[in-house]
Please model this.
Amino acid sequence: MTDHALTGRTFDAVVIGAGAAGLVTSSGLGLLGARVALIEKHRFGGECLWTGCVPSKALIRTAQTLSDARRGNLVGLPATEIKFDFQQVMQSMRETIARIQPHDDPETIRKKGVTTLQGTARILGPGRVAVDDQELASKRIVIATGSRPTMPPIANLQETGFLTHESALELDEQPRRLIILGAGPIGLEFAQIFNRLGSEVTVVELLDRILPREDAEMSDHLREILETEGIRFLLGHKAIAAACLDEGREITVRGADGAETRITGDEILVATGMRPVTQDLGLETVGVELDEHGAVLVDAKMKTTAPEIWAAGDVTGKLLFTHVADYQARLIVRNMFFPFRARADYSRVPWATYTDPTLAHVGLTESEARQRHG
Model:
């Protein structure tokens, strides 16, 4: 349900985007008694609920259970190969989403004093936001529009067809052979999920190692473990072309030595990164500046380059984690209405890649510490 007849309504704050950052910001302000409008174009709950944390961890749990059963002999139990139905696995994942979804439902949010709107938002000018054919007035605006998968410049990729981590969650038929482009956290988590479910997985990475933001020794050790499970890696290879075959798809990759290799698979999953969603928001009308990657520029208080406009979450391009979006949103709530301003500090942010084993760290890696402190 969406509130109607809002033309001419004035709010203390308008929040654009109902993912983690937008939900925390609007709920926090609403509970403080502010008059808040929360606008969402697609589904309330954002990436974490629908295409990120929740579904991926549900699939990881299923894949982990299968792997544990196969290795039962290591703990005195019979090694067991569990028969399963891929559609039932995917349905279980969707049921997990459905159980959690009510926490982010518009009705739940409205109980916190927030007005919810479903539609496309655009900033018309200072203090003015359009939602489809309605116009809202608000002195303060928060941009929390998140991010979406990047598309690498690969010849014929669009024509060939591909998956992202989002569309992979819509599969009802398991690919026998899966090509994954990108060896970052998303690519590796999906690689291990599908490998443990029985797919033949090949991971292509432009760099010479996986997880470049992690400690090199630890990421190399993780790669070795994943290789023993049967995942194939082509590191230092650039995907240059895609093509459809009579049975499946093909990716052509080029190594550092210039040699080209063709890889065939049933599906191609692109996991080469995320980019901020800032298009068609009208940011140029109010002077909100973007960085070279298209992220909204914010200071340590989460204020943009435009007066009375804040931003939080993936759209800021800082660290693309749900807990960072939550942290930034809480800073906005504090800084918007309280005199003692808080500043963001990302020096001790914990993060993890949910492979098995999990690779996690807090603060600087060894190489980063040596670069910074000698």
In short: Confidence is low (pLDDT under 50) at residues 1-5. The first strand starts at residue 10 and ends at 16.
